[in-house]
Structure formats: structure tokens, C-alpha cells
Amino acid sequence: MTRIALALLLLIFAPFAAFADEDNTAPENKAVPEAWSSTTQHAVKIGGKVISYTATAGTMLMKNDEGEAIALMGYTAYHADGKNSKSRPLMFAYNGGPGSASIWLHMGILGPQRAVATDADFSPNGPFHHVDNEFSIIDEVDLVMIDPVGTGFSKPVGEGKGEDFWGVDQDIKSVSAFIVQYVTENGRWASPKFILGESYGGMRSGGVAWHLLQEHNLGLNGVVLVSPFMEMTIGFVGLGLDLPNVMFLPTYAATAWYHDALTDKPADLEGLMAEVEQFALQEYAPALLMGNRLVGEQRQAVLAKLSRYTGLSRDYWDQADLRVSEGQFTKELLRDRGETVGRVDSRFKGDSINLLGEQAFYDPMSSAIGPPFLAAFMDYYRSDLGVKTDQQYVVSGKLWMDWDWHHAQPDMNGFKLPFPNTMVDLSLAMKQNPNMKVLYQQGYFDLATPHLATKYYIDHMDIPPRLRENVSLKMYEAGHMMYIHEPSMVKYKQDLAEFVRSSLP
Description:
The chain is an alpha/beta fold. The chain has two domains: 3-233 and 370-502, 3-Layer(aba) Sandwich (Rossmann fold); 238-365, no CATH class. The chain is built from 15 helices and 16 strands. Strands 1, 2, 3, 4, 7, 8, 9, 10, 15 and 16 form a ten-stranded mixed beta sheet that branches. A two-stranded antiparallel sheet has the order 5-6. A two-stranded antiparallel sheet has the order 11-12. Strand 2 and strand 3 (69-80) form a beta hairpin. The longest helix is centred in the middle third of the chain and has 22 residues, at 269-290. The protein is globular, with a radius of gyration of 22 Å.
């Protein structure tokens, strides 16, 4: 894969990398720093009830099979006071990247405090602040936010090196090891257990669900996949494959609908999505497969619908040979207004940097929410949680540059495929743990992991019909981080809480 392609992957999976400038390579000396933690007491009102809880922010020393120190993994844990830890659910959560810390889920929706940011627009400059999060999930579960190695305060130490952690399978193994060690050290083996991952966290979760079961005999009650990326050949436009173009088309239409860029804009978004999805699967996909044999009236008919559904001109689609990347789309849609739309959440928009450019210079969504989230988190971690370390919290490390994308797919007898697909891992985990449930949460305005790709994942899970009842999908009129949108924030919490309760005996 070329460096250019990898750069595009960074734009999709690590849009906030501008905050990182720390070298995450293993230290040359083998001195092993000690694990540390800060424990504080708090209370928050959720659903009209006051939840008293203990917060622990710190690091855990990880060792290899020979007992040698290899990493410090950072985490933030919230345990409800006065609850029976054996019966209380325990949820582990993380973001994606690869190379993203857990700040976004932590301060966006899951934790007891959330950053204040303006929805679908740029937030005012400081003072930035955080508030009690009435939509936190800690009224239902004890929560552990994980920062994988190379993010947050997590880093290789001792005998550990970056390549031991920075790859599909290496990441699955290390996060699984953290979960097992945390469960053991905190006496939580009897607790119902859940994992929740966003974006590349979906790729991680599929593998972790299988790895925990196979290597550690740890069965999960539920897996939550938020705006998931789980199969590279489906969720990434730019590999010369036709299918990803089909997956992105409905999100182009949703974006054009939101920004009033359609000539005949329908009133109903969901109705439009059903129509465009049908076109994408039944007309657009076959047209792309025809290649140069698509000519004459048949080609013109497809071009006409592409233009009508997306707001881009027929000529633009024609010159693009019916294949427009999400980067081109974000630049072209509002070019005549001098604006570009977001990729992580296409409801956001901002002034174009280069009016003649083919690709968007920046993602307005990333620029809009990054500063308030980081400022709120750093203030919260130091002031509320009592973390006094002078170490930098790495929001998004440049791990994509060295990421090993090979995956030993469990149905391939150990052969490592260069294009990972952990839907296979998840399907096998469901077959061998048939009471485990899976929840997908997905926004309509997500151009990083489009919603039709998520539906494709679900439709192609290799599980028997009876297990399909254990899989559910919840949609939101928002983007990749749907919890930025307040109505979706309310629905997100309701959906997640109902899923947790439904996954318990």
C-alpha cells in the first residue's frame, strides 16, 4: 500500500492527529516506570437519581508470557458505590484510529462528565468547560475507558516495542490482555461483561470478542459497535474496488439533503435513504460491475440518478467515471458556496481553503470539536480526577504509519490476510457464545464509516437465523460521533441502556 493511501487512511480513522506530537517508540533504556493511579470520589445525577461512584485514573503494568514488563496501559474506571460487583455489569470501551485515545467516547457520551461543544458548528473559543453528563451509562454499568498502547498515557516499556502492539492482531491481543488482567485484579470474573468500540474500535471489537473467548475463556454478554469499521475492502474508498463506492452513495445523498443541495429535496430523510439504498444495490452496483460495457442510454440513466440523489452535476459524475471518493464529494458539494463539508460528520461545514482543489484541505467537524474536547478533558483529568503527571496525553498518535494491517482470520488456518475483516471473528464468537448480543449504532451523516456499509456487515454475518435475533441496529440523524447531536445523545443513551438490560440473564 502506498504512503498516499496510508495518508488517506489517517484522514478517515484518525482525524484528530493534529494534537499528537509525541514519539511513541519504546525507550532505549530498559528502565520500567511504575504503574500509577489516582482515586477520587464523586456523584452525578442521571435519570433523576444520584449515582455515587469511585473514579480511578491510572496505568496498568502489562507483562509478556515470560513475566517481562512490556507496556503501561492507561485507563479511567468508574465503579458505582455500594453495588454488588459480582452482579453489576462491567463495560470496557475505547475509540479507534488506529491510534486514537478514548477521549471522544469518554467526554462525549459514556463518562459522568462531558465536554461542551456546539453541534454542527464551530464552538466559541475558551473558556471551555465540561458539565455533569446526565446521559452517562454509569447508572447501568461500571465503566472502564481504555487507551491502547501509543495513545493517552499508554506506552511500551521494558521489553516492549511499538511493533508488539501496532497492528490488527497485536492490538487485539494487547487490549484483550488488559481486559483479562483488569477483571482478575479487580475481582470481576463473575460480572456480566460488555465491550464497546467506535470506528476502528469495531475492527478491534470483532477480534477481541473472539480472542477473549478462545484464548482466555472469557465470554461476553454483549458487543456494542459504534460507527464501526470492520472490513477494509468495504469501508474504504481508494483501493480500486467498486463495492465501497456503493456503500458511500446513500451518505452522499443524506449530506446533500441536509445542506439543501438537492433540486427536489424530499421532506423525509428516511424515505430518501430507502430509495437511494435500493438504487445503490440494484442499479448502481451492477452498473459499476459492467465497467466499460456501460454505455449509451443505460449509462446516462445511471448518471442522471447519481446527480439527482447527490447534488453533484451529471458531468462531474461522468468525468469521475461514476466513482467519486468521499474526499472529492466533501469538496465538490458546496464548492459554489465556497464551503467544504465534514467527513466524520457531514452536517458540519467550513470555508474552503482552496476553491480549485479536488480534495478537502481539512475536516470542519474535526476542527470544530477538537479544541473544546481536549481542553475539557485535560481540565477534568487534572482538576477533578487528581492526575498530576506531567506526561502528555496523546490524543491521536501517528500509529497508522507503522500499522500492520495483516489479520490471521480465524477461519483461514492461521494464514494472515492483508485486508482485515473481523466480521468473521465476531460471527464465530456469536456461534460459540450464542447468548451474546450485538448492537450497532450508526449515524446517517457519517462519511468515515457510512451506514450502508454497517448494514452490509450485518447482512453478511455468517450466523444462523436464530442468532440474527441477537443483532440490532439503531440509526441516528447525526454523524460518526452521533452523540454530538443532542436529540441523538438522548436516543443513544436509551438504546445503550436497553441493550445492556436485554443482554442480562
